Queue: 3 jobs
Job 1
Amino acid sequence: MPSMEQVPAFYRDPYLSRLQTRVIASGRDDRGVWIELADTIFYPEGGGQPADRGTVAGVPVVDVQKGPQGIRHYLQGEPPSGEVTLELDWQRRYDHMQQHTGQHLLSAIAEDRFGWKTTAFHLGAELCDVELDVPSLSPPQLAELEAWVAGEIRAARAVRVHYLEPEEVANLPKLRSRGLPEGHRGKVRLVEIEGVDVATCGGTHLANTAEIEALALVATEPMRGGTRVYFVAGNRLRRRLHAHEARNAALRKLLGAGDQELATVAEAKLAELAELARQLRRTQEELAVLLGEKLATSSERVVVFHREDAELTFLQRLARAFLEAQPQGVLLATAGKEGHGYFLLAANRPDIKQLGELVASELAGRGGGSGSIYQGKAAHLAQREQVKEKLAEAMSR
């Protein structure tokens, strides 16, 4: 393997969370302020695994990327110099190690036991996923795959790292690999799960599959002719379970039902709400018609109506009822609150567009329309009485 000086600390000991080293370069690019170090415990983003976080001399590390010459650590603050202490966000790193080692195990079993090859991998903040070259997976198939993974976690398989020359790698009888990074030179890094898998990989991993603790397959979706399988492992799985239990407890209290009945009771409540919404819409339509007919009895030349809690559809139904009852009438209807409202002008007049534009201008709004309706949004609803007078003047000219 490469000499210990050539391998960064995050590879020499992925369990190391603190390191003394020195700054050897610094600068700024489009990502921000960066430093390069003589050695580092911070893994740079790559191979589906996110970058580590932590601090350098107390300054937060916000990103880690491979630069043209070395590994760039992007900082939230002024770059330190000289000798520095690195502190790793260990919980984040260990989570990544659990998820990534779990992915190796999942991919190996999916291919060897079921013939489903992994074509892509992503380690997300909440869920991880692999893309398998199988059109779909049934619940029984997922359960069987999950059970096989659980068995290998219980088997406590050792996880080891090897460095081989490219020609040695080419002669390996069985190797899982999606290819080496472009421009790769030197020895190839392999991660072995004893008796289960050997794969090219540049990520950080656990020392034993038992540390994965558990792995659950939580969802699937079609993806590029294959199937994306979402999973969680380790501490993340336990956190997810606790969150689900807390939500279930809240739902049990709200719905007055046990876990097995929650979906049924929720479905019934949603159906009830949908029916109530339909009844409310019918009632609002009937109310709009009655109000429109009542407004049509007014002797005012321009009738003004406002309802704060109404929607534009309510105003439209109101206006149609008004004009049906009083074809020669003019209605200015508004809804909403000052600063955020609607207006509607209804009149069987050839100058409806000009009158509508006048209303929009006076109410600090904008709108449009056709036929006997001109409508839009308005900001100054308190001006409607003044607008009524200006409308009357415009209609008299």
Job 2
Amino acid sequence: MAIHFENIKEHIGSRVSWDDRSDLFAPEAAKAIREKVAERTVLVFPELNLTDEEQLAITNAIGPKMRLTNTTNVQSNDEDVYQVTLDEKINPQPEYVLGTFFWHMDGITVDMPPPFATLLSCRIAPDKGGETEFASTYAAYAGLPEDEKQALEGLKAVHSVRASLSPIADAIPEKHRERVLGIGLVKEHPLVWTHDDGRKSMVIGTTADHIVGMDIPAGRAMLMRLQEWAAQPAYSLRHKWKKGDFVIWDNTGAMHRAIPYDKSTGRMMHRTSIAGAEAVAA
């Protein structure tokens, strides 16, 4: 097996290359990829051109896989492959995708551990817009001054889908707006997630509505500052998609968002998810 990793930025991202494409499907590759995802947050496999079957094979090997979204826009050959698109013929409720224009983490409002990783294949790349940005909340937390780290310890934020979709609530058809905004659970999570290995990241993004025990304006201002801190160039990465690109990122230690694009571009991504092994813990 010969897989190579080249750092993209100091604190986030590695570009993956291989001597033989089959190396990526070798049993030992899954362990190497999973460890590198945890270390570097985002892995980019340029123009790998995976089929759904191959993407599921990699997902299962690193896995186990999980189904994050129960919806109609899934591939007919496997319901665990979710089609990320604004095409209403495929996705009858595009507001879920519109919500991805804002910083978020996957699976924060469901009653299970958040997914360890998200895997995305580009099937149609837009000419304009549609890039995906990633921000490492591991690196962002590590870079905070010590007094700010101490100030965050013990704080909890309230997360909901309603909060995450509030920027685009007016774009949701009124006839089913309340139903869409009310999906998922309202969850309290610590701002600082202490992982089983002792590393710490932040649980932030647009699902975070307010901070428990803090005045609403002050709490929301703190949450916004933390987003801005994590999104600074030192801790973030923007990926310009080409058809066939494949990206894996550590969902437990990163926010992500899509740069807005028009539905006429036909942008299409195929997403799979790897189950998380640990709940958010203080």
Job 3
Amino acid sequence: MARKLPPLHALPSFEAAARHLSFSRAAQELNVTHGAISRAIKTLEDRLGVLLFERTSRTVRLTTVGAPYAQAVRDVLDQLGGATAAATAHQSSSTLNVSTSDGFAGRWLVPRLYRFHRANGDIDVRVSTTGRLTNFLGDGIDIAVRYGGGTYPGLTSEFLMGEEVFPVCSPKLLEGAHALRRPEDLRHHTLIHDGFPINWASWLASAGVEGVDPHSGLTFDSYSFAVESAAQGEGVVLGRTMLVAADLAAGRLVRPFGHALKSLSSFYVVYPPDAIRQRKVKAFRDWLFAEMAPPSA
């Protein structure tokens, strides 16, 4: 049996006006105009065919029909608010769901994440690694770090860091009969691939290197595995500024050549516009940018 319902969009205006016994105060609470409140209540009264308020030049009061109806509407709105809070509990809980790529998680985020948890011990972080775009509403993700052009319709996208690409390898490959000194020396070494858009063919062409097969070598689906293979001396991988910075600083990897290729894509922090109102999301967003900031002198 079909329900006989009033115009639902008018109910918040009616409930607020009934609670305050003032159209002006209801308008202020709901951040709309006095006229919008008046029109909503007129629509409701017309649909019901009864007067809900008695109006004078200075005051309004509920009619004998309006008073019990206002209480019923208030109860329904309270119940709906509770159900909505329960349905979106993952957004307001202490668990922060972060989505990013395997490479960013393994090479940058995870080694630093203890600092976020140390400063925000009440926030539990769950990291999901995937190459696909996040459907924030459907998969429960609160905030993401994405690599791309920065255009994500309907979402807030903030530039985090750009990137350059350059060969990196173990210090061991700088020694021996075929030590890496010039890009042309790559013909004596294994190239390591990771499926990144800027590949060896692009880098070798930009460096003017010929005689090196850009498709030979080892291939990994995971950037972390590709970097680890290079650190173990298995070959040379294309390093990405942010994702090999720690390995370069620690001496596990070195840059045998100075030539770098600037990527057209960058890292962005991405989240639904309203998500920043949640403390856990803002805390993580602010921490990301603080970690990116250069150390003070």
